[in-house]
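Sample entry (199 residues):
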Amino acid sequence: MTLLTTWSESGPEKLVRRTSAPAEIAAALEPLGVRYEQWPVREDVPSDADSETVFAAYAPEIDRLNAEEGFTTVDVLGLHPSDDPEFPAKAKAAREKFLQEHTHDDDDEVRFFVSGSGIFYLHVAGEVHAVLCEKGDLLGVPRGTTHWFDMGTSPSFTAIRFFHEEDGWIGSFTGSSIASRFPDYDTIAAAHAADRAAA
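Predicted structure, serialized as tokens:
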């Protein structure tokens, strides 16, 4: 279940909104130009499925989005815990690449979560919106939107990525330390899991 938490940009002490209702999330994100959808979950697709399996399972949704948005490149990115002794270093490097505030000047950032989860933090109009995306969620962050992404200290997700530009992911970093002032993925995901267990 997705979770949206909004704070004042001054810090997490000033909570503006916290909701897991899809309609409320969509309504809050729409004025920011952020695309939020929930696609049908294909339960027969393994969490660590390869690209061919993912593309075949979600072909109708991918084709529809491509027709609407005119993407030139679509790929699948997966990162899951393994026994590989190099995994911790690989996971840390992957996390750190996206964890600092940045923008994309020439492309939107559009992701669909086939499995696992991650949090997009959108820094817009004096607020920070943390969107915890889970399996079945699609989020489209418009080009020029200041944001960062946290996959946690032990990343586990598979996502379909959509690009208008053939060069793929290109970030322009702001140099701000704002990301360090807000709860990270591990903190938010743990609290969300506890809330669901108690419900």
